[in-house]
Structure formats: structure tokens, C-alpha cells
Design goal:
Blueprint: E1 2-4, H1 7-19, E2 24-29, H2 35-47, E3 50-55, H3 75-85, E4 89-91, H4 95-98, H5 116-120, H6 124-139, E5 143-147, H7 151-163, E6 169-173, H8 193-198, H9 201-214, H10 220-233, E7 237-245, E8 259-267, E9 270-277
Parallel strand pairs: 1-4, 2-3, 2-5, 3-4, 5-6
Antiparallel strand pairs: 7-8, 8-9
């Protein structure tokens, strides 16, 4: 597996792959890789001849009171995991490589970034959209794979690729979960043993709403209440619980099979997110 640290190295490698008429996939990550990330690599391998993984803790998407300094980092461990999962290259630049002195450009997907995590984390999705655009332009991949756990982010990336005319297929891969249902996340490492035991309450609430929907309930507030009950029972502090259209992310007045329930909650000091399409196919990973 090839390790890359600079933009010229990436351009040289991608040019070689293109001359060989190889189909290229990109998996953007911030490192601290877990089974969810590695499932994205495997999905990318299924769709392309060559797979590149970017590992970059993007400072632009962290607010002043967020966890940039304490965000988990394990570059050598991550590189080993990428190699074992079958990645062909890993790009792990320093911030100055992507944001040179005087950097003064940003990308923003205005409507989709409103509400949900966009409201709670001002500027977050501008940072995400900016770095993802840079990576998509740099690699020019045929396909890029993102996880559905960060659902608002996925919809923003789909929109920016469409709006900017980028020739990359954006793929959303299913959420990968621990045996007790907790969505895999790098931030799960912040949880104490006691907090970890209560963390599956996000999934419990989503499944409760799904069962209620399957029984015929369409009232958004009643479905929302079903999600809130397990959160409160486990001492979670609700950030938001919302039901939105899965494509537009606009609020729903009446739940439908295509309605997505999205939840963000604090377990101790750790903010976790999860989601479930109420009428979608049930998945465990």
C-alpha cells in the first residue's frame, strides 16, 4: 500500500491509475478508524479497481469549543487497518498541505446545512464541504463512499457534487453497529464504562419509533416522544430529535415511509448521533 503526504504525490499516483484505465474510489475519513470506516473501504473495493483513503483531522469543521485537540489520533494504527482492509493508498497530509498560507476559500451548501447538526455546530458543514470538495477535485474519483450515520453530511456532499458538476458518484453506505446496536463512532472512545452501557438508548428510541410507525402511527410528535423516552430513562441529554424528509431534509408534518428520524444526544460529555428511515429496510450493519 502506498502512503502519500503531499498534493503532488496524489496527482502523480492518480495520473498513473488513469493511464492504466483504472476505476478509482475515495474514502474520506478523519482517522481513528473502526469497523464502520473499514466497511466503507470494502464497499469502495467492490466498486473500483483502486481505493484511496484520506486520513485528515480537518480543523475547519471544529468549532472553538469542540474537541479538535482531543480528537483521537492513531495514524500508524489507521494505516495498518487500511492496508488490511485492502486499500491501495492512504493520503495523510498536514493541515498546511490542504490549507496553504493565505487560504481564503470555502464551500457552503446553504439550505441543507440549516437545522440539525448545522444549527448546533455553526460553520461545521462549511468546513466539511470545503475539505470534501478539495479531496474530490484532487483525486477526481469515479466514486466516493461515505457513511449514513452522518446523514446530513451525506446529503450535503451529494448536493455539492451535483451543484459543482463533479464527475464522482457519491455512495452512502449503511451504518455499522456494535452488537448492542450503538452506531460505531470514533467518539465512542470518550465514553466511560457506565456511559457506554447507556449509549444504545439512541438506537432503542429509533427502533421504538419504527415499531410505532409500523403499527400505523403517523403523528410526528408521538413518534418523537417514543424516541425521547429511552433517552430520558438512560440519562441522555437530548440535543435534537427530528423527523425529516430523507431527500430534502425538510421537516415532516405527517410521517411517511420515506421519513427519516434523526437524533443527537449527549451521553455524559460525548455527543452521539444516529438515524433511521421509518419505513426502510431494517439493517444491523
Amino acid at each position: 500500500m502506498i502512503r502519500l503526504a503531499t498534493v503532488p504525490e496524489v496527482r502523480t499516483l492518480v495520473a498513473e491509475w488513469r493511464r492504466a484505465s483504472l476505476r478509482v474510489a475515495l474514502v474520506p475519513t478523519m482517522g481513528a478508524l473502526h469497523g464502520g470506516h473499514l466497511s466503507l473501504v470494502r464497499e469502495a473495493k467492490r466498486r473500483a479497481s483502486r481505493v484511496a483513503v484520506s486520513i485528515f483531522v480537518n480543523p475547519l469543521q471544529f468549532g472553538p469549543n469542540e474537541d479538535l485537540a482531543r480528537y483521537p489520533r492513531d495514524l500508524e494504527g489507521d494505516v495498518a487497518k487500511c492496508s488490511a482492509a485492502g486499500a491501495d493508498a492512504v493520503f495523510h497530509p498536514e493541515p498546511a498541505e490542504l490549507y496553504p498560507p493565505g487560504f481564503d476559500t470555502s464551500v457552503e451548501v446553504a439550505r441543507l446545512a440549516k437545522g440539525l447538526c448545522g444549527e448546533r455546530r455553526p460553520g461545521h458543514f462549511r468546513g466539511v464541504a470545503t475539505v470534501v470538495t478539495k479531496l474530490l477535485v484532487l483525486f477526481s474519483p469515479d466514486v466516493a463512499v461515505f457513511g449514513r450515520k452522518d446523514y446530513q453530511q451525506l446529503k450535503i456532499v451529494e448536493r455539492l457534487a451535483l451543484d459543482l458538476g463533479l464527475p464522482t458518484e457519491i455512495v452512502g453506505a449503511p451504518i455499522v453497529r456494535e452488537p448492542d446496536g450503538l452506531a460505531m463512532s470514533s467518539r465512542n472512545a470518550y465514553l466511560s464504562p457506565e456511559e457506554r452501557r447507556g449509549a444504545p438508548c439512541l438506537r432503542e428510541g429509533l427502533l421504538a419509533a419504527r415499531r410505532l410507525f409500523a403499527a400505523g402511527e403517523r403523528d410526528v410528535e408521538k413518534l418523537r416522544e417514543a424516541i425521547l423516552i429511552p433517552l430520558a430513562a438512560n440519562g441522555a441529554r437530548m440535543d435534537y430529535v427530528e423527523l425529516r424528509d430523507r431527500d430534502t431534509l425538510l421537516p415532516e408534518r405527517t410521517a411517511r415511509a420515506t421519513t427519516i428520524a434523526l437524533v443527537a444526544a449527549f451521553i455524559g460529555r460525548t455527543r452521539l448521533i444516529d438515524n433511521e428511515i421509518l419505513g426502510g429496510e431494517m439493517r444491523v450493519g
